[in-house]
Each structure stands twice: as C-alpha cells, then as structure tokens.
Amino acid sequence: xxxxxxxxxxxxxxxxxxxxxxxxxxxxxxxxxxxxxxxxxxxxxxxxxxxxxxxxxxxxxxxxxxxxxxxxxxxxxxxxxxxxxxxxxxxxxxxxxxxxxxxxxxxxxxxxxxxxxxxxxxxxxxxxxxxxxxxxxxxxxxxxxxxxxxxxxxxxxxxxxxxxxxxxxxxxxxxxxxxxxxxxxxxxxxxxxxxxxxxxxxxxxxxxxxxxxxxxxxxxxxxxxxxxxxxxxxxxxxxxxxxxxxxxxxxxxxxxxxxxxxxxxxxx
Length: 268
Description:
Number of domains: 2
Order of helices and strands: EHEEEHEHEEEHEHHHHHH
Strand order of the largest sheet: 3-2-1-4-5-6
Largest sheet: 6 strands, parallel
Number of strands: 9
CATH class of the largest domain: Alpha Beta
Oligomer: single chain
Strand content: 5-15%
Helix content: 40-55%
C-alpha cells in the first residue's frame, strides 16, 4: 500500500483524495483545519493534526499558496516523520518557494503544479476527474510522484520552475486578473444584455478572491509584463489595414482551434 498524505482539503486536495479513494493500493491520510470530517467518507485516516501524516510515503501540500512554507515547516517538525517521504506542493505561484533554501528540509521536496482547476473552490467543489487529461508540472523526475500523477489521470511534465511564474502569467494569472477587471468595467446596462460570450470570458471573476490577490501580489512583475505585451498588440492592431486585421484574426483563430479537442482538453 502506498501511503498518501494530503494537507489541505480545498478543490485540489479533495479532488486528489476522491480520485485515489477509487484506486486500489492507496492508504489515504488527510489533514485539514476544517474539512477533515468531510474526508472521512473517502480517507482511511483524517485529522486536524499534522502529525497524522508521519508515516506517509508521499505528501501533497494543498494549502493556499501563501501558506505553503508554513506547512513545509510543520511537516519538517513532525517528530517521527518517515525519513524517505516525498513532499510536493500544488501552488500556482513558485516565487516565494524558489527564494527559500529548500535544502533545509529533512525530506525530498518537489515543486509541482497540476494544470487543472475551477473558478469554484472548497471541498464541495472537488471532483474525482478534475485532473483527467491535464498536465501536471513537476520540478524533477520521481517514480512515486509520477505514479500518483498518472493514477490521477494527469500527465507529468518536467518544467524548469525558474520559468514557471512567467509562463503561468500568460495562461493563468493574467487571464484571471483580466476577467475580474473586465467584469468590473462593464456597465450594468451592458451586463443586462450579456450572454454566453461575456459569461465565459468573465468565468474566472468568481475565483476565490484570496487566490486572485496572491496571484497578483506574488507574480505582479510577470503579469504586468504580459499585460504590456497585450496592450502593444492592441496598439499594433489599431494601425493595421482591414485586410491585415482579418489576416491576423484568421491566423489566431486557426491556432486556437488546434489547441483543444472537442472536450476542451489540450491537444499539444
């Protein structure tokens, strides 16, 4: 039996729990400040006490991004912690972690990030197929971590985490901030006329406000740099002729159509 620990039972942590609870060969240990009672239906062991994770082979820290270092220290202070345990985070922002001396921990810590989620949050929003068909970014290869990721239905992808926050500013962080701001600037008269286009474009504006704040606070430089590129593209667009504008829209449309399949999953 592989002993898997999950610290934090929000959308990501609870989705890991629900999926692995359906797969033989896993013994599940869950720690959470508030949702550990809900986890009893799926886990073998649940508690609000971090010490419950002591015997685990692998632990996922699924807390808010600004709490990851706190829980790394908490795990590091578990007296009888399995000396061979692998610990992985799921944070969408790595700047703070990369600035830390990660060698001080008595366990092998691996930066990771599942490229799956929802505008919804919390245990009740979690689902067992959240990661199916998605990519899971990892700092380095590790057989145990990669097996768990495979069993969750995701594909492990090796990424230089030094580039993580810049890459994510384009495909996650800036889209989230723009979603909030677009909704904010739209007059009520416009909102009354809105249909699916506005709904889909502003879907991320119901993202947990603490998560949105952390995205901007911890990755502001990269987000603003990406936004400058966007405004430059808009300036370039204004200067184009009609035929040039149509050609650009066609090129972008064709590229976008090749990116996802009919179920919304990445093709490349």
